[in-house]
């Protein structure tokens, strides 16, 4: 178990928090990203960025053998004030938030036919969420989505992934100055689905970005959220929860690149695991570059192991190239139920299984409340209840 670490302004430390030149995060970023899949060698599983991923279960997304067939059905519901269009990959908005950083993301970029672009104009505050439904039809598909907010626009986006598919996609979020965007991405796939995705957020001056990633289903889900800042004053809040069952592999690899002064980031991901060979991976990379004075950042990952046979790999990485920061820190913890919590509840007449459910509900409640959409929050809590009841049966 890794304890929380905090660095006040001007302080330095070593170990899991690295300082200055020989930083592993900076090393991983040294290879330039590319839109061309040929620039990425086929991974073999020994590479740092692939060592936790069971490559054989990617169904060819990583080596070029996956061929578009069947695929997914995508529907986009835009409320009044927003527009949706379909564009080619040469549209300047496509890829502007960030280029692919691994072979699967590059394969998705070179393989999609048309990109979907949703635009919220300057000074527009949407009163209803944008809803994007991705429904698997049993085949293989590659997609690209762009969400663009003009200056001082405000919007909420809900992306739902259901059904069965072998699916790879890039999603770009472009936030103008002073814009506010909340994104909820739900992975509720069938048990045989495979989903690999890169989420790129480019945050403008004094803009605010909140991401809530929820992963339940799928045989393998590997998501790579990334944040960069276009100007000072940007804020990013990255929340995530995952419930990993027997045989599932859920992998979340985050990267926050602080290369701009006076920006803020906060990361909180929580996971629960149950069943044989349930495997969750969380990689949290935060890089504070020399130019990013005034940065304030913190990342947290907590995992609750509900049964024997489950495995968690949690690797927070914080690297700092300047001492002129507001603060920085990280924490990671993995453990079983708190016996004192269970005893407290059971001593008040609550049966053991009900007490167990209450503990898990409380564990996730903080993150689910960040969504702010009652229908989505209720659905996710019901899903958690169903997962717990299935395990108890």
UniProtKB/TrEMBL annotation:
Q: Which SUPFAM superfamilies match?
A: Stabilizer of iron transporter SufD (SSF101960)
User: Can you tell which superkingdom this protein's organism belongs to?
Assistant: Bacteria
Q: Which Pfam families match?
A: SUFBD_core
SUF system FeS cluster assembly SufBD core domain ranges (all copies): 136-363
Protein family membership? Belongs to the iron-sulfur cluster assembly SufBD family.
Fetch the PANTHER family from UniProt. PROTEIN ABCI7, CHLOROPLASTIC
Q: Would you tell me the protein name for this molecule?
A: Fe-S cluster assembly protein SufD
Q: Which organism is it from?
A: Streptomyces catenulae
């Amino acid at each position: 178990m890794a304890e929380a670490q905090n660095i006040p302004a001007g302080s330095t430390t070593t170990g899991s928090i690295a300082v200055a030149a020989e930083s592993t995060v900076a090393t991983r970023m040294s290879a330039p990203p590319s839109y061309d899949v040929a620039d990425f060698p086929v991974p073999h599983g020994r590479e740092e960025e692939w060592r936790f991923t069971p490559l054989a279960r990617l169904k060819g997304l990583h080596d070029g053998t996956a061929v578009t067939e069947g695929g997914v059905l995508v529907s986009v519901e835009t409320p009044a004030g927003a527009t949706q269009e379909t564009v080619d990959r040469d549209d300047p908005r496509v890829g502007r938030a960030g280029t692919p950083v691994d072979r699967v993301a590059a394969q998705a970029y070179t393989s999609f036919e048309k990109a979907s672009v949703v635009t919220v104009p300057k000074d527009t505050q949407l009163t209803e969420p944008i809803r994007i439904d991705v429904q698997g039809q049993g085949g293989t598909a590659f997609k690209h989505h762009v969400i663009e907010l003009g200056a001082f626009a405000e919007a909420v986006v809900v992306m739902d992934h259901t059904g069965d598919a072998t699916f790879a996609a890039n999603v770009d979020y472009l936030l103008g100055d002073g814009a506010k965007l909340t994104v909820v991405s739900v992975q509720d796939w069938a048990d045989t689905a495979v989903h690999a995705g890169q989420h790129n957020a480019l945050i403008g001056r004094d803009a605010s970005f909140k991401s809530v990633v929820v992963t339940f289903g799928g045989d393998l889900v590997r998501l790579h959220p990334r944040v960069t800042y276009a100007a000072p004053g940007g804020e990013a809040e990255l929340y995530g929860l995952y419930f990993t069952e027997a045989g599932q592999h859920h992998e979340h690899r985050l990267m926050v690149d602080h290369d701009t002064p006076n920006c803020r980031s906060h990361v909180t991901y929580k996971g629960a695991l149950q069943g044989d060979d349930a495997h969750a991976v969380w990689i949290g990379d935060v890089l504070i570059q020399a130019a990013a004075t005034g940065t304030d950042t913190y990342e947290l990952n907590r995992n609750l192991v509900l049964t024997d046979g489950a495995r968690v790999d949690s690797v927070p990485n914080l690297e700092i190239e300047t001492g002129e920061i507001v603060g920085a820190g990280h924490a990671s913890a993995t453990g079983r139920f708190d016996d004192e919590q269970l005893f407290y509840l059971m001593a008040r007449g609550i049966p053991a299984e009900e007490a167990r459910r209450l503990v898990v509900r409380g564990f996730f409640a903080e993150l689910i409340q960040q969504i702010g959409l009652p229908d989505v929050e209720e659905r996710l809590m019901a899903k958690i209840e169903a997962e717990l009841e299935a395990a108890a049966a």
